[in-house]
Amino acid sequence: MPATPTTATHGLSSAGLSSVEAAARLDRVGPNRLPAQPRVPLWRRVAMQLRDPLVVVLLAAAALTVGTGDWTDAAVIALVIAVNTSVGVAQEVKADRAITALAALATPTARVVRDGVQHPVPAADVVPGDLLVLAEGDIVPADATVVQAAALLVDESALTGESVPVDKATDTTVSAGTVVVRGRGRAVVTATGTASAMGRIAALMVTGSGLTPLQRRLVGVGRALAVAAVVLCAVVLVLGLVRGQPVQLMVITAISLVVAAVPESLPAVVTLALALGARRMAARNALVRRLPAVETLGSVTVIATDKTGTLTEGRMAVREVWAADGATGTDVLAAAALCNDAVLRASGDGTGDVALGDPTETALLAAARAHGLDPAARLPRLSEVPFDSARKRMTTVHRRPDGGVRVVCKGAPEAVLPLTGHTDVLARAEAMARRGYRVLAVAAADLAEVPDDPDRELRLLGLVGMHDPARPSAAATIAACREAGITPVLITGDHPVTAHAIAAEVGISADQVFARATPEQKLDIIQARRAAGDVVAMTGDGVNDGPALRRADIGVAMGRRGTEVARQAADLVLADDELATVVHAVEEGRRVYANIRRFLLYALAGGTAEIAVMLGGPFLGLALPLLPAQILWVNLLTHGLPGVALGSEPAPPGVMRQPPRPPAESVLGAGLWQRILRVGVVIAGVTLAVGVWGHATGRPWQSMAFFSLGATQLAVAIGSRARPGTRANPLLLVAVAGALALQFAGLYLPLLRDLLGTRPVALPDLLVICVLSSLGYAAVRLDRVVHRDRPAAPTGPTAGAAGPTAGRAGPRTRRPRGRRSR
After folding, report:
1. How far is CA 625 from CA 183, 255, 701, 702, in A?
2. For residue range 215-253, what is the model confidence (pLDDT) as tens digits?
3. Active-site residue flag, 789
4. Are strands 459-467 and 438-447 parallel, antiparallel or unpaired?
5. Is 121 helix (H, G, I), strand (E, B) or coil?
6. Which helix (H) or strand (E) is 680 found in, with range?
7. The whole model's pTM is what?
């Protein structure tokens, strides 16, 4: 016996608005669409990229190399700036597509009643007061209040994160962007465009994520290099003038030292390291949308994860069946398959049948099939009373082969159990619910004929507990996060009990669970963690996750089941929807960061040595240790291919058993700048020793110092490998060999000798220099053993991440408004 749809007019005629009134309201409130984001002019995007301090230093270096007449070096630096600026602008354009994706999510047409007749109209023409007609499969075009409902079930997961579709009755609300899963209804529009739930989320997404940790660290390095280079080179200029050297020569020398002190290949190394990291991540199903996100993953201290589809499989499944006396689990599932509107259809890929319909009913149908029951052999249905929020149950009547009828009822335990006289079973149902299950009671009756009241004479068959199961890899992934010093936090729009149960199953502390979180509250939580000093990665798949994905240090979207809004707002998209892929990406990010630090050690130690040689040489009798052309040549060879090749080094052993770098730590922190000075002293010492020896014995000392400087730096590059003694990264060996060959050419090729002002060095002397230059390799390896690169213990809120209070905001952090599950 079908239920009569409930109706409420709310003062609105069933004829809906008139066409004239609808047109007037459209003129008054505007179209039902999200406003387009203002376009940023190309020149402004380029200018913003060029404001980076390191780029400013490179621009100055390019100008100075032009002043010295070194057009080749100037062209290389200009090319690096152009490539990095182009990549940065392209990344910004991609990120700005998130708002466009939100607008595209809305249905292009809607059905409204106007002048008493149903009309399909463009969704942009829907106005407040319109009477919407909703049916299964429709996307709700605007916020509205339901005035008529017949078994109306709406999937709000993309907007709220709630994993279970919500039953809608009279006086309940539906939101723009949600989907009608089952039933039909009518609703009066209350808000459109920017005033709708979708519009409010779009407003939140305007907030950008700011600089990444890598960008912030490189800004500091750029400033430090600019100041140090100018000051030290000014000192060299003054000392040279005091000693009576020609003004023009000392000016050119000082400019050359500025260029040498600035590792102009740093942006190229960073870009290459990030690009290689992105390619490796893509091979492991992590698609990078913004290159800096690669390194950001390596600095992550908190992973804020969604529940549905991330920690869980994104589907309902039967996990527990309890049978009452006189019944079996098979009886329970057989009855649930009868009282069911879901259907089995062949999958498009030929892998078998798939269940379509309400997630709860498809789970029951799948469980029946798994237990050998054939849902296709259902008894013919004679009548039904559909589920609604008032009854909280569904009842169907079926014809039996013997001529009698079978009545089956399923629904909320508090609605079904009193009909069977088994209210004592409520305690069992509540215990199942506390374990995070959605619990249904199933009852049945075999009668001779169709009853007037199908809910009488029912016999309890049992209870069914179901939930969205955790992914098989989730617990191991969370454990891997903790081992790496990363705090996992669960933020979901789902019920607190469900969220707590999944968190306990996968190993997330109860203190790190936020349930019933709205999009605004998710954003609040992310901002609070960042304000407390954390580097936050946020995973999500719904429209409701978009603002938090955009605001997090790195947003991670699901590629398969995620919405386009989430994918466009994210920095990283997981093609396999596996959280474990994020852990692999974290390892890649740490590798990239380690390689950037490795290059800085190599390049800045060489620049330090060059300045030290120019400062210390005159005090040892070497009036002008190196000519400007020689400085630029060594700088070009060492900072060129060998420096870039260092960006391809594999991950250091045990990188995922170390805590993440403290977010506030400089890229030169954790003892790196001290290592730069120590290695620089060795390079300078070898170079000056060779120069003094050559000067004292009447040899071509300047050419010997020139070769020694380059060769010792190349030895440092070999010693800086992550895994020495292996064949990992053969590109570095090739690059060093090529650079060394060019260094030889600088001594023996007549054209280069004239350009660089060098003279040939005798072979025995050259062998001695090569042996001394190998001290660069020994210095790096010994320094790594004596002064291990020990990351500082995190001092922010993630200290002691494995403990029960990990990740709590500091005392000055505003507490998020999201509801913390208890």
Report:
1. 86, 15, 9, 6
2. 666 666 666 776 776 777 777 778 777 777 777 667 666
3. no
4. antiparallel
5. strand
6. helix 672-696
7. 0.63
